[in-house]
Amino acid sequence: MKQIVYTTLFLIIGWTASSQNVIIKGTAQGAGGRFITLTTISDFITNTEKILAKATIDSAGSFTMSVPVDKTIAGQLSIDFHSAGFFIEPGKTYEINIRPYKYDDVRELNPFINSTNLEMEILNLPTNDINFILGEFDGIYNSFLVENFNALYRDHNKALIDTLKAKISPVTGETADPYVKNYVEYKLANVIQLTRSMNQAMTGYTYFTSRPVLFDNMQYMDFFNTYFSKYIFVTSGILKKKDYHALLSAQDPYSALMKALAADSIIHPVKLRELVLLKGLMEMYGTAGEDQKRIIAVLNTIELKGQEPQTRLIASNIAKTLTSLQPGTPAPLFSLRNRNNNGSVKLDSLKGKVVVLNFWTSYCTGCTNEMDLIKPIASKFRDKVVFISISSEYSLLRMQYYLDLKKDWDWTFLHIGDQVDVLKAYDVRSLPLFVIIDKDGNIYKYAAELPGSGLENSIEQLLQSSK
Known about the structure:
The structure is a single chain. The protein is an alpha+beta fold. The protein is built from 16 helices and 16 strands. The strands form three sheets. A seven-stranded mixed β-sheet has the order 11-10-14-13-12-15-16, with helices on one face. The protein is globular, with a radius of gyration of 26 Å.
């Protein structure tokens, strides 16, 4: 057998007392020289990604990574912005084959537009593995739902629930794996809801009030998010909008909210109630007006004093999600290679100066037209403002070739390289995008005006206010 030499892994997380090492190795033809990243969802309210490990794919397309895991998790392997998910159990080894893909065919990197699913296969998968069991279950479930949706939703044919259970029984069997059991039960709960076999209150009591909160089970949390969508200020009926304003204005708004919501018997268990409150605050934020700052204050309180480590994490993630890229919040940091690929620029090294970022590609005519207008602005503020243009096209050579044609573009140019997370951090959904960062490294304006429609005035205003 041909010997494969694997590349070095860069671990992102540390060991915990009960962790067991998981080995993930395999091939990704056509991806040599790129990074492959293993992530998981840190919470299923905000769907914030957490990087577990990152490795380089060698020239033969081979990779390996090792990561400590203390419980069953939903993982995701990504190359550039292409990804595929699977379940990871502590102590196991997974051999992965990612089918060949022409990664260089994509001219512009945009994880929100160009992302695709990797075609991934787990080799030598035993029939008792969670990926095999849930893969078979999901296949039966999805086909059944497509074939019987009208009978379930329109006709409320409750007998079909038993038919579905009979179909999946040979696959799920009498599994003792709690993750699998709960995954199956909460996915079936969606069908039970479709047929209206239970009223809303009975569903809540059956699946939430009388059960522990399963923060890490993706199907529990999927059903949770569906059931409790707009719950505290619409479905529950315990409080009205004006009541929330009063409670958020209380001396201890967290305690006041938790006490008031305890009148709803479905969410009376304190851990469940706190999670429902977190979801409600996140949903409420967009229309909260003057109460937005109070909502962030409650989230900060839960982050410090929440009932569970996971609710404290969720509170932190929600606060970051709601305030991300808002004026006065820290600009996401990055370290990117310069136009000549002989050095890097770190954003945090530029504190003390105003920074104007713009994201672009040479293929974006709107981008290049606006960048022709940067030259006089950059010259005017040369000693006070750093202009940085970040190319999100995959090929560094393409960027360099274009810049060789634009001799008067003499400000700083950086290339995204494999740092696709920078595009995600700045939520680059369309191009061009301009961002102004103040001297303290905080967002001043996102998205800022274009050079042809007010960027210069915004820079002037910031410089005047910071004198």
